[in-house]
Specification:
Layout: H1 2-26, E1 28-29, H2 37-50, H3 57-63, H4 72-82, H5 93-106, E2 125-126
Parallel strand pairs: 1-2
């Protein structure tokens, strides 16, 4: 019976290690090229039309420390819920996503081949320091 307990423990330990390593492997950061250059370009127009009046890029640099180690999706939801200040939630989801891509690009994070999508994996992308 003692021999069986060791086997069960070993299998459980292997499964735990596999699960933890798989979980970490799936987590991305905003340094991993999680948006496209086309999204940045669309975001520049949307940002200028809806955000630039109140927020220059220094605004995001000043608040960024509060977002570190949080999912990018949380940042996206906050912008959707609170902006524009005079009409929160009034933009299309795609416009908010483009604006986030533009902010990330302006902060110095690289674009890539992956399309940023709040409905597909944005919750597994962590915010990090520039």
């Amino acid at each position: 019976m003692f021999k069986n307990s060791k086997s069960v423990f070993a299998v459980a330990l292997i499964l735990l290690i596999w699960f933890v390593s798989t979980s970490y492997a799936q987590t991305k950061t905003i340094k991993d090229g999680v948006f496209t250059e086309a999204q940045v370009e669309a975001g520049q127009n949307a940002y200028e039309a809806n955000c630039n009046v109140c927020h220059n890029i220094k605004f995001y640099r000043d608040i960024w420390k509060g977002w570190i180690d949080k999912p990018l999706l949380n940042f996206w939801y906050t912008i959707v819920a609170e902006m524009p200040a005079d009409n929160p939630g009034s933009l299309l989801d795609a416009e908010y996503t483009y604006i986030v891509a533009n902010i990330l690009s302006e902060m110095g994070f690289p674009s890539g081949d992956t399309v940023l999508d709040p409905n597909n994996g944005m919750g597994q992308i962590n915010i990090v320091s520039p």
